[in-house]
Amino acid sequence: MTLSYPAPAKLNLFLHIVGRRADGYHLLQTLFRFIDFNDTLHFTLRSDGKVRRLNDIEGVPPEQDLCVRAARLLQQECGCKLGVDITLEKHIPMGGGLGGGSSDAATTLLALNRLWQLGLTRTRLMEMGLSLGADVPVFIFGENAFAEGIGEQLQAYSLAEAWYVLLFPPVHVATAQVFAHPQLTRDTISLRIRDLSLGSLHNDLQPVVCKLYPQVAQHLAWLDKFAQARMTGSGACVFAEFADEAQAQAVLSQLPSGMRGRVARGLPIHPLYDLAAI
Description:
- The chain is an alpha+beta fold.
- The chain has 8 helices and 10 strands.
- 27% of the residues lie in helices and 27% in strands.
- The protein is globular, with a radius of gyration of 19 Å.
């Protein structure tokens, strides 16, 4: 039996750092939005308990792959004797702030919960996902969400239909370096969910990333000529929002030859939302 599922990217429509825990983790507020740009994963059932990734991915050995780690975590937590072969079609760039690895892990947990007939709830899968990474739970939560804490405290947030021009600066941002930077703002005033006004929000990591990676600043400056441009996550990818596909495509058609980008539609819900029971 083989199941094939998407793992969508996310945008952080804003990202504020509002404090820091004693263990060094940063406290944040952000608004996650899923978009129709995704990796695709194929899962083939094995009866011998082995977990294998069948294809090579540059820079990601199988033992470090979040998909493999997610599958083995499920086996360990549930005492499952089944296994799986995983093929990962990678489209979301790594180090881009789009949550690709976290989304891959979440799709793995959701898919294997079904393939192995484990019957775990969405809440339990989210708890397991958090042990793999702070962004994993939102992809299992399955709704666009206002997030607090280290990103795991989630409240569903309804967003209007929108289209995005997404640019891919040719750099791989080192997230740990950005969060450790002495010039990072760590005391932005906390917001209440009812006070959100997207026009006045920002990404606290963006100034630091632009300082360390000038190509990110160049892409932001170009896109900002058409609409307010912002970096997603810890970068490097940047985006701007448009009301319809035609506007977004018109901007993308003017992209200089040295830049890469695409148009993406904002999703109202994760495509695998129905895979997990409450």
